[in-house]
Structures are given as C-alpha cells and as structure tokens.
Amino acid sequence: MNSIGIKTKIVVNLLLLLAAAMIMIDLVMIGSVRQELIKEHLDKARGILGMVSKYSTVGAVTVEPWMISLLKGNKATCLLVFDSGGETLNKVGACSDLEGLASLTELTLGTGLEQTIAKGFSWWEPRSGKQLLQVSVPLIRDGKLSGAAAIEMSLEDAVTSILNTQRIFFVYFLVNILVLTLAGFYSLYMALVKPINRLVATAEKFTDEQAFFFRQDLKDSEFNKLYRSLNTMLNRINDDRTKLRDSVASLEATNRELSRAHQEIVRAESLASVGRLSAGVAHEIGNPIGIVIGYLELLKNDRLTGEQRQDFLRRAESEVTRVKNIIRQLLDFARQPEADEPVGHFDPTLILDEVISLCTVHPQMAGIEVTREYPEHQCLIMVPAAQMKQVLLNMIINAADAVQSGPNNHSGRIGFRVYSKVENSPADQPGLVCIEITDNGVGIDAEHLPHIFDPFFTTKDPGQGTGLGLSICYTLIENLGGLIRVTSTSGMGTTFIITLPGAEVEYGSHEERSQGETDHV
What angle do CA 206, 210, 211 make, to 5 degrees? Predict the structure, then answer.
C-alpha cells in the first residue's frame, strides 16, 4: 500500500474511534443527567406528597391555598387524594394523564408501597406525547392504610435542558473530533508514516552497483531497530552477491574450459573414426588410380581411333571423379563438428545413405550384407548434419567390428531402419523419428550393457579403441534433444535405437527424395 492509502486509513480510523468514544461519553453523560433530573423532580414530588399526608385527616384532605401555590411553583400539573377504596377525595389541577395516574394509585393501594413512573423521558420513547413524572404514595393513619395521594409533574423543562446540553455537546463534538483527528494524525504521521516514507524512498534508490544502507535516527526506536536489521541483511546480501558473481565467473570459465575440452574430444574421436576408414579408403582410391594409369598408357598408342581415345578419356574421367567424391566425403567427415553449428531440416535416410556409402569402402564392411528399411513418407529431423554424420559413422563402424568379431563362417548382416511415431505429441505437431541400427555380431554381455555409454569404457583389446565413441554419440544425441537406447543379447547381436524430435513432414518416396537431393547438389 502506498503512503496515500496509509494516510487515508489513519484519518478514517481516528474519526471512527474518536466519534465512537465521544458518543459513548455522551450516552453516559446524558444518562447521568437524566437520572439526576428525575431524582430532583422525584424529591420535589415526595416533599409535596409528604406535606399533603401531614395535613390530611381520615376521610378528607383540606386543600390549602399554599398547596395550590406549591404545585404551580414545582411544575406539578395535578394532585389527587384517594381513600382506601380508591374513591377520589380531592383533586387539585388538571391531570394530563388521569387514567395513568389512577392506575398507578390503584397499584399503591394494592401493595401499600410508593409507585413512580416517568413517561416520555427515556431516549427510546416517542416524543409525540408529554413528558411526565407520576408518583403515588400510601397514606398511613394509626398504622393502617387510609388512602393514597398521587401527583403528576411536568418534565418538559428537564427535556429542554437535556436538548440544550445535547446541542452544546454536538458543537463540542465537531470541534473536538476535528482537532483531535488532526492532532492524532500529525502525531501518527510523524511517528509512523514519515519513517515508512523515508524507508520506501531509500529502498527505491537502491541499485545493484552501489553500496546501500538505511540511515538511522539518533533516537532509539523500533524503526531504528528495523533499520539496523535491514542494514545487516543488506550487508549479507552484498557479500553474497559478490561471492555469487565470483562463483558465476568461475563457473563460466570452467564451463568454457569444459566446452573446449569436449569439442577437442569430439574432434579427436571424429578424426579417430576417419582414421579407421583410411585403410579402406586408400585401397578404394588405389583401384581407380590404377585404372586411370592404365588408360593413360593406352592413350599413348598412336594407332587408337578418335572414338577409342574419347572412350578412354571418359572412363579415366569417371574414375578420377570417383576419387574426388571419396576424398570430399572424407574431408566432410573430418570437419570438426562445432557446438554452434547451424541446425537444419534433414532427411535421416539421406544422411544414412551418405554414411553407408562411405563406410562400404572399409575392409571391415567386406562380406557384410546391408539392408535398409525406410518409410514411404518423408520424416525430417532438425539437427546439425555434421554431428549426425559423426554419430552414424561411429555406430556403423562399431557394428562392423562386432560382426567381424564373430566366427569366420559367420554371415554378417547390418540392418538400418528409419520410422516415425507419435508419442505424447499434439495432433498439429510432428512426433519422433527413430533410427535403428541392428547387427548380428557378438553382442554385449549383460554386465557390460549398463556401462557402454560411460566414457573410456570398452570391451576391446588394449590399443583397439578409446572407449569414447559411444559416450560422445550419447552426448551429441542428448544435446540434440534425443535419446539412444540399446538392446543386446550376447552372441546374437545388438540393436541401437536413436530417437530424435521430428520436424515437419513432407511426402514422397525415398527414391524421389534421393533424386531430388542429387539434382539439388
């Protein structure tokens, strides 16, 4: 809540509290005054009735002129004297409520006790009628009830006095509530609102780059205790902020070092994979170079016709182009995958075909049957192509190693399957794309299966592998938002399943997509 809201609440609450307090004081005061006025009139009534009783005789009351004067002087409207049977013996003046006074007298005759009633004088009674005090006392002669005397007195002068007092109170009420509200508001504003405003203004000036503290007053108050607590808290925050900045800077430096180390490891493993292909590629390059040399020797023959020369040149050119393509593929695979390599939409079947075509030149792929199962409809993935090629290259070389490790009479097979599936995906979003690589090699023992993705874990002989290939593949796929799973039975083969988020789906057969890719290149 802002300071305006606090001021408003203070003023409203002060007004309500002061008004309630003064109204309660007024009720108590008016009630006391009312009781005193009634008591005063009751004393007068009792005095008159006492004189009447003194001068009364059995069966009659002598009405003296002084009695009439006494009634008028005390605002008494009438005086009645009754015998013991309730018959009226004397009546002086005109009663405003004769029936009520007679009923009150009958009650006195029945109980032998004084009866008193004030009418129209209580705050809950209507003011339409007259304000009266009626008193009835028994008349006792020789110890016996001989009758009763009743008097009726007007309370209009008392009511007028109370109303005048109320008017004066109302004036004081307005003055006091205004003065006390202003005085109370000023006192509370200086004691509470002003320190809060200063606290808020100081806090709003806070910036991360400056030393910050709350200024304290000279007086020892609760706000000073709050200022000290806040300053202590801010000092701790500043210390923690400095430590946090140092920690963040250290973590950023460590993260950069780890990122560089990871890139170097990926680079080294990529080069290691390419190196494992070198022997097969060298053999594959040696054959077309030998053919080209043979054609060049034939071209030295002067007896060749022009048509034969053109045929030999075309054949030599074809072999040179083959060498060029193999070298280009090697250079592509040798390129270091960058962490910030652009992500594009790629058909996994085309990437897989490219990697398979390069791996087929490797001697370990000799005699291995390669099968492919691709979906009818195109499914795309959003990945960096170079990183995806490195993953597939490692997986295929590992599969070839597993197949070649089997018996000599073993018929090796490596199967590739690409398919898409919907898994917790909305209808308007693509599902998942899965790439399965299955071999019928030696398989993986059950105790080794949980550790195959651990760094530096390998089941090969020393010097035959680094143990980083599958670990790097797992990290690269995980960074792409995917997952690698493996199922294997020792002696029966292994299946790796790479699952990646799919992109938009386009239609067309694999042959059409391959032709389109070739035409595009």
Answer: 95
